[in-house]
Design goal:
alpha/beta; Rossmann fold; N-terminal domain of TfIIb; 2 domains; eight-stranded mixed β-sheet; four-stranded antiparallel β-sheet; disordered C terminus
């Protein structure tokens, strides 16, 4: 974990108010992928839920959701924004995961872990937590993410009572760094806060083989559905096949969006089921 936690209260609020477009874009396809889970009343475990932007779409669609995030400020916002969802603090890769019928994570939360080894450990834990017939959908930053943004100039965003400036850099092709300074109005004055976020960039082509070791069949895609993802952000859609079942593509996804597949009936640890 970083010395100071990511997404403290000011940045959490700015992200909630100004950066909901990714959840808006991916939610239709995520909901389509999770339709079978909703129909059988299964549990959706959301990792890195942030302020609950995707969580609200899931709950409004009728899903039973356990939403989690590593940021206490984000968890507090999500509990207010989606009161019907259970929202808890959870930090990968060490905190245990409950068994779930679906696991979702959008906005590349896994890329915020400290190292590639931690990402591998988190993916192994996620795979073990996915129940038979379960669906897994997440996005993650590929090495291409850094290559596409190496010369990216600083950016500025603002709302009615806040402003955010961000400077970008790429370290050794493996770390994408955002150095953020924000100003939030506090009465007649403005409060300054600074956060630096590092995203670990990985070769996503190896993810299907890693998940296959735990019996989860995965596909890399350019998108979850019809939306357009930023360059270097890879969608991963996977399933743990039913016992004795054969692997099949998910319905409604063009073949050109599939970039890799893998399957292996590897070992799976048993985890307690969340019954909330």
């Amino acid at each position: 974990m970083p010395a100071s936690p990511y997404y403290r209260s000011d940045l959490a609020r700015i992200h909630h108010e100004g950066f909901g477009f990714h959840a808006d874009a991916v939610s239709p396809a995520i909901l389509r992928l999770l339709d079978p889970v909703r129909e059988r009343g299964g549990l959706v475990l959301e990792l890195g839920c942030g302020s609950g932007l995707l969580t609200k779409y899931l709950v409004d669609a009728g899903h039973r959701v356990l939403a989690t995030d590593a940021s206490p400020a984000m968890v507090e916002l999500a509990r207010t924004y989606v009161p019907a969802a259970r929202v808890e603090i959870l930090r990968l890769p060490d905190d245990p995961l409950p068994t779930a019928d679906a696991i979702v994570s959008v906005g590349h939360p896994l890329s915020y872990l400290d190292s590639e080894a931690d990402i591998d450990r988190a993916l192994a834990a996620i795979a073990r937590a996915l129940d038979t017939g379960g669906v897994l959908a997440f996005d993650i930053c590929d090495l291409e993410w850094g290559a596409e943004r190496r010369e990216q100039p600083p950016k500025v965003w603002f709302g009615d009572d806040w402003m955010l400036t961000t400077r970008f850099s790429v370290l050794d092709d493996r770390i994408f760094r955002r150095e953020m300074t924000m100003f939030v109005r506090a009465g007649d004055l403005w409060r300054r806060e600074d956060e630096t976020h590092d995203n670990v960039l990985i070769d996503t082509a190896r993810i299907p083989e890693l998940l296959a070791r735990f019996g989860v069949a995965a596909e890399l895609r350019s998108a979850f559905g019809d939306e357009s993802l930023p360059a270097g952000l890879v969608a991963v859609v996977a399933r743990r096949p039913q016992e004795g079942g054969s692997r099949a593509h998910f319905d409604g996804v063009p073949d050109e969006q599939r970039t890799d597949t893998a399957r292996d009936p590897g070992p799976r640890a048993l985890l307690p089921r969340y019954e909330g």
